[in-house]
Amino acid sequence: MQNRQIVLSNRPDGIPGPEHFSAKTTELDLTLAEGQIAVKNIYLSIDPAMRGWVSLEPNYLPPVQIDEVMRSICVGEIVDSKHPDYAKGDTVYGIFGWQEYCVCEPNPMVRKINPELAPISSALGALGPNGLTAYLVLNELGKIEAGETVLISTAAGGVGSIAGQIAKIKGCKVIGLTGSDDKVEMCVNEFGYDHALNYKTTENLEKAIAELAPEGINVFFDNTSGAIADAVYPNLAMNARALQVGTAAVESWEPETPLGPRRDRHILTKRLTVMGFVLIDHTAKAPAALQQLAQWYTQGELKYRENITEGLENAPQALADLYKGANTGKQLIKV
C-alpha cells in the first residue's frame, strides 16, 4: 500500500515553513506483528510545540530527524489490529505523524475516542491536548480559586480559549491578551473573558494591564514569553503563580538566548511561584480531566473553534500560518 508522508527535509533556524518540509510516497506493509495496530489518519494537529520538535535546542522530546515523518498528534481509524485492546473500526488518538497511515505499537499516549460524545476532531483540541493543558495548568499548577484574577496570553487560541472558559467556570476574573481586534471581540463575546487587550496595538501594555487589574494578577498563563510576558510580570500580585506553557513569542533560542528584563526581583519580592508545564508529565491525571471537560462540553459550558485545512500537503503552510496568528481556534489538517 502506498503511504503519503510529509518529512522534515532541512532544519529551520527559527520558525519552520514549507521550505523545510517535503512530500514523499512510500510503500507500507500492513502485515502486522503481534501487539501492533494500523491507523488511517483523519485529522492531524498543528501545534506551536512543533517549532521545538524540529529544533536541535534541548527539549522534552528528541528532535525530529532529517527525512523523518513530521511528528504530530492525530486522530484516525484503526484499519487492522493485532492488539487485544484495539479493534478494527476503533477511533483512536496518538502521535501518528504527518502521513496517511501509521503502523505502531500503542503507547500510553494512544487512547480510544468516543465518536458519539463530540466531533472526533475535538479530541485534538478542546477534548484533547488543548483542553488537558488548560485544565491541568490552571488546576494542578495554578490552583486557581474563585475571586482570583487570571491573565492568559494567546487568549483566543486553541489552548488559551479553553483556559479562559475554565477560569470563568471556576469563578475567576479573566483577562486575555491576543493579537487582533477581532480576537479581542471573540474573547469577550464568545469565550466569556471579562477583558481582553490587543497587545499589538495597545500603546503601553504594562500600564493597560495595571488598569484592568489594579490589585495584581494572581495566575499568569504564559503561552508566549518574550515582550508580552515582560509587560505582565510587573503586574503580578504577591504570591502569584506564573505558569510557563509556551514560548511562542521567541522566534529562536539559538545561537544565543534572547535577553529581556530581569524578572528575579519580581520573583523575590513578590514571592512568586514560576513553573513550567509539559503535558506528557501528567498523563496519569488525563482521564479525570477529560471526564470533567466532556461534562462541561455536554452541558454547554465549554465552546471551541477549529480551523480545518483540507489536504496533507497543506500541513507545512498551516504550521507557518499558525505562527503568524492567522488561525482562530485549533488548527487542524483533514487528511
UniProtKB/TrEMBL annotation:
Keyword Oxidoreductase recorded: yes
Alphabetized InterPro entries for the sequence: ADH-like_C, ADH_N_2, ER, GroES-like_sf, MDR_fam, NAD(P)-bd_dom_sf, Quin_OxRdtase/zeta-crystal_CS
Name of one Pfam family that matches: ADH_N_2
Keywords: Oxidoreductase
SUPFAM superfamilies xref list: GroES-like, NAD(P)-binding Rossmann-fold domains
Domain named Enoyl reductase (ER): residues: 14-333
Gene Ontology MF terms in the entry: oxidoreductase activity, acting on the CH-CH group of donors, NAD or NADP as acceptor; zinc ion binding
Name of protein: NADP-dependent oxidoreductase
